[in-house]
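PROTEIN DATA CARD
Card holder: cytochrome-c oxidase
Chain length: 286
Origin: Vreelandella arcis
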Amino acid sequence: MSSTGYYVPPTSRWPILGSLAIGLMMAGLGAQLVYGSATLLIVIGALSIIAVMTFWFRDVISESHLGLYDSQMDRSFRWGMGWFIFSEVMFFAAFFGALFYVRMFAIPWLGGEGAKGVSALLWPNFIAEWPLLNPPDTSVPSPEQVFSPWQLPLVNTLLLVTSSITLTISHEALKTGNRSLCRNWLAGTVLLGCCFIFIQGVEYYEAYQHYGITLEAGIFGSTFFILTGFHGVHVIIGTLILIVMLARVMRGHFEDSQHFAFEASCWYWHFVDVVWLGLFIFVYVV
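Structure generated from the sequence above:
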């Protein structure tokens, strides 16, 4: 700690190790898509990410309990979390932008509409529609049907909306010093997150086995799995973070007026919930 009281963290190896772990998992995902045989690499990368998160959380918690953080450090954490969520907003904005571009521009052009409707000469028999169940190139596999938004997707929407409510109740309970109520509602939030992950797994199984919706099933399949898949990864990460928060609450961590780690996990979870509402509307309903 400097003479001004501002804590300067020591050199940490976790950022570079975290980057390497993410790169390893993404390399595995790329190899899986291209070669179809990189499951082990993906698993090693995912376990490495979890390990880095675990040890990094341990160090930050230890520094906090040693009293090394002051109000300036608290502001740094808040700004850091704010910019992180902003980067996540841009991340999903790119994927939503790709979906809107395909639906609003590319498909109508291939159907003969707009200034670039000459593209229709490539496949004169193509019918511009969304969901695209009949890709213009017949060599591309097509989905057999799409999901009804009022079945599993609606259940998952209700689960995530409810989880935001339970997490808010838990947060308010922590601020009033009611730790047992905080623990119980937080445990309920974790359970709802796990249920969401399980149901999305069931949906993916149904997509591949019965609906013909795969990553190879044209632009609909690729946009569907990119958007819902990356969101699912965020739900898994958010659930792991909430499990850490639950363990800390049960061990008596956090004060009524000082618990930014808990608050940051709430920010992240609410962000994930809002993204899902956009997915539910623009991927499943509209």
